[in-house]
Amino acid sequence: DNTIGGTPQPNPWTKPNSGTQEWIEFFRDHRIGHQLDLAGDAYCSNLWEKDIAPRLHLLFEDLQGEKEIKPSLLHGDLWSGNIGSADGKPSIFDPAVYFGHHEAEWGMSWCAGFTQTFWDGYNSIIPRGEGFLDRKPLYDCYHQLNHYNLFGGGYISSARGHLESLKKKLDAKEKAK
Question: Which is catalytic among the residues 77, 87, 94, 140?
């Protein structure tokens, strides 16, 4: 376990050869579920528990078989305040490190302060998955909830918006089946 900012971040060991299903369970329980427990917001918790968490697997349908998620070592809190240089060389610091889906690193992109050139370079090494735009609100929501738990204020409204967006995406996916 470690922290993200001052918030405890549980990192239970995952099963050997973990893949997409284990990632979904980890993020559901130890990222969003944990932050929602800390936030104590009934609306967000109910939306998550009743409408999103049971159908979360639908956001990851493109990541099966050969495209199965393989855990990557993540910084976990990647934004411009956690990068710098040492002896003229780039460095990153203050990690909230864990193993997870590489797309989760995008969760702070709403406030990261990185240029499009940075993200284009990232994507040239690790291309976006087919369902990335459907999953991005999930990863953004984690950091919005954490910011709410750290600082309060309007971050809960942003988290609600991401959860509502996820519900709409999942409703559309179910309707299309």
Answer: 77
